[in-house]
Design a protein that fits this description.
The protein contains six helices and 22 strands. The protein has helices spanning 2-30, 39-42, 106-137, 143-169, 174-183, 364-378; strands at residues 34-36, 46-49, 51-67, 72-75, 81-86, 93-94, 99-104, 189-193, 198-203, 210-211, 218-221, 225-233, 245-250, 256-265, 275-283, 294-310, 315-317, 320-328, 331-336, 338-343, 346-351, 358-362. Strands 3-12-15-14-13-16 form a six-stranded antiparallel barrel. The chain has a four-stranded antiparallel sheet with strand order 1-19-18-17. Strands 4-11-9-6 form a four-stranded antiparallel sheet, with no helix packed on it.
Length: 379
């Protein structure tokens, strides 16, 4: 009798266990995002609360290497003339004051003649004024005649100075003007000289070409220091400021990180791209950087409180980020989340979590394998 009772009790217990297993299986099969961890797997899992922590985000924006505009000179002719000789080649190193090209200018010749005429008239009127002064003192002429001669001399003096100033505007040095006055030799050839030392990065003239003062003939750049410039999206402008530390990655240098500080943050927004220009200065004494090289600028923004999860909690499923959230004893739900890039072993939660959950931070990979296995068995 006892033996029969024992058999009936055992059968009832087995039936109950089977019903519980079937219930769990049906539960898991009904919702593929849920998984019940076996006791041995549960012991390997580590859970942690989703928390808020101060995060210093790093903005990554596309940029380029550019000329330092304060070390760039656009050089043109000071007179209208025809190119007779070109001395500088593209890419050539030049010193300040070095001749880059020579022009033949009829305008320069005319102005030199005007200067010589003014100077000759000045000498004549100077002598007339001195003679008039001597005659006045001898009571030969009156005061009115003396004043007239002196006035003519002062007018000639002003005209000579104006002619000299005009020559200087045309690029003639004071020393050359002095020689012109002494020797009287008109020279219609004028040089185009470098206003700074550096490298010729542009050359826009040809032999025999007629050029105007408004034309840019050469561009010379000092490449010892360059700028890295980038466009920061309007939504992130509040996170950047002058003086912030930045890192610049240049693909042409194997993504080597160059460190600098923001020296400029634009005050206006580009209406077409909705971005703001930012700039940093880089040392290029070794000449490795080249203007127009592509670069990525990494800007360390100020710290703000953000919801974060450990990077070890993230599971990639269907090319999307997920985490396992605890729903009860041994039960976990695979939840899709949107996360920021990893920083210091953590990822900022952009959406999908509220901050009140417990997530699996260790063993999530194995738990997902178990979920996939049960899903395949159920199907």
């Amino acid at each position: 009798m006892k033996k029969a009772f024992f058999l009936v009790l055992t059968a009832a217990l087995l039936l109950g266990c089977n019903k519980e297993d079937q219930k769990a299986a049906v539960h898991d099969k009904a919702d593929p995002t849920l998984v019940t961890a076996a006791p041995e797997l549960l012991a390997q899992l580590k859970l942690a609360d989703v928390s808020r922590q101060p995060v210093a985000e790093t903005l990554r924006v596309a940029g380029r290497i550019d000329f330092d505009e304060q070390r760039l000179a656009r050089i043109g002719a000071t007179v209208t003339g025809r190119v007779t000789h070109i001395d500088a080649l593209l890419g050539q190193d030049v010193r300040k004051g070095e001749v880059l090209a020579r022009l033949n200018s009829s305008e320069l010749s005319s102005q030199q003649l005007n200067f010589l005429k003014a100077r000759a008239q000045l000498e004549l009127n100077r002598r007339n004024a001195e003679r008039a002064k001597a005659l006045y003192e001898a009571d030969v002429i009156g005061a009115a005649e003396l004043q007239r001669r002196e006035s003519e001399y002062q007018i000639s003096l002003a005209e000579t100075r104006a002619a000299s100033d005009q020559l200087q505007l045309l690029g003639v040095s004071p020393a050359a003007i002095d020689r012109l006055g002494k020797q009287g030799a008109v020279d219609s050839v004028t040089p185009v000289t470098a206003t700074i030392g550096g490298v010729v990065v542009e050359r826009k003239l040809a032999q025999g070409q007629v050029v105007q003062p408004a034309d840019t003939l050469f561009v010379v750049a000092d490449l010892s220091r360059l700028w890295a410039v980038a466009q920061v999206p309007e939504q992130q402008v509040s996170q950047v400021r002058t003086g912030q530390s930045v890192s610049i990655e240049v693909p042409a240098l194997g993504n080597e990180k160059l460190v600098g500080k923001l020296i400029y943050v634009g005050q206006t927004i580009n209406p077409e791209t909705r971005t703001v220009l930012v700039r940093t200065e880089l040392d290029n004494s070794d000449g490795r950087l080249k203007p127009a090289m592509l670069a990525s600028m990494l800007i360390e923004a100020k710290s703000i409180e953000r919801l974060v999860v450990l990077a070890s909690a993230v599971v990639r499923e269907n090319d999307e980020d997920h985490v396992f959230v605890a729903e009860g004893e041994g039960v976990f739900r695979l939840l899709k989340v949107k996360l920021g890039p990893e920083q210091g072993g953590q990822r900022v939660v952009l959406s999908g979590l509220k901050g009140e959950e417990k997530v699996v931070v260790d063993g999530a990979f194995h738990l997902n394998n178990e979920r996939n296995r049960k899903e395949m068995e159920g199907s």
